[in-house]
Amino acid sequence: MKTKKTSFSFFIPILFFCFYQIFIIVIFAPQVESAELSANKIITVFGTGSVILDNEAEARVSAINDALISAVSIKVIDILSAEALVLNFEPVNRIILTDINDFIKNYKVLTEIRNYDIYRVAIQTTVSMEKLISRLEQAGIFDANAAANLPKVLILISEKTNFESPAKIKYWWNQSGDDSKTFADSIISKTLSINGFKIIEHKNLIQETEIAELKTADPVLTDLSAINIGTLYNADVVITGNAVIIQKNIENSSKKNIETIINIRALRVATGEKIARASHKFIVENIDFSDKEIPPQTVTDRIRDTFFNSYKKAGLEISSKISYLWNYRQKSQKKYIRVIVEGTGNFANFIKFQKKLEKAKNIREVKISEINTDETVLFVDFNGSLNGLVYAVSLMAFDSFEVSCLKKTDGSIKVQMVNR
Hints:
With 420 residues, the protein is of the alpha+beta class. It has helices at 12-18, 20-27, 56-79, 82-87, 89-98, 100-103, 129-138, 183-194, 211-214, 223-232, 296-331, 347-359, 386-394; strands at 41-50, 104-115, 118-127, 152-161, 168-170, 198-199, 237-249, 255-268, 274-288, 336-342, 363-371, 375-382, 401-409, 412-419. It has 13 helices and 14 strands.
């Protein structure tokens, strides 16, 4: 029976805010991340070998070994945070290459092909996560119990949407008394919770009389304001920033693009130190709100995908960084100092600074952890105090730029490079 269809465009503003309840069910459903790490993992990967002197048999063995190494490497990435991998890259590779056969329970070659002097295989293999985790723990690279030591986190993220006119900005510390969660708050809270973080529910404490003094009309908090609210709520870390979900008209078309941008940073409440940040952008293009042939649920799903992908990626990224800084850095035998270098847009100048830093007295190792548009984060193994590293940097001189230390906090310093 043919049913009468109603234009979906009329209901877009209403549906966008109302499908939140359905969406909560989706993000709170059991997810892959919650599976136990110790389970064996079946994975399909490719491998490549070179055919030398027409020795196809040797090339095949080389391709299979390459695939097995890739399989274990992929599982290592699932276990370790990006920061832990950066600082332990050499021992991690040594473990994989030396003990590869211990981690492979079985494998089978699915298909194979020779293309001139290249031999390619696709294999399916079972990786023993228990043995892999045990070996990383023995090396002091991974701590399976680290989640128990993770900090209490308060989320302070505002969210702006233009699906209604005028555009709406939502944030729970506003003066209107609306303390409900934003989409960003819900998704990032859930992502961090899955990874072992303790999330402070602000609704539980919203009746505190002191909160009135910290309420602000400004949806984008300064670091100081965020830390003040975090202190009131007894948080170890606050994650603050803003998210924007906007629809953009396409010229000469009834279609629209939906764009989500999120920029967040994590602050250690006790010291005010910025310990992590994440930025993500996601676009779904050419959504036709006026097409009566497209089921409303299809459009709703595509809208949801825009912010779900951005928010979840931001949550996973910042979760990984906080987890490492909270656990592994403190337990590392090497006491790395985190050096945040501003003004690295001129990459040639940054390379000069990095090389001179590596040669400075008492510097044992310098590793790049993160590269952003105009800021780079280094981990420096320095045989001395934080003040000693600040002094060492202050002595550096360059022809084309100047270097100055702007700030130092517990375990990190901020350096600025300025062209002459």
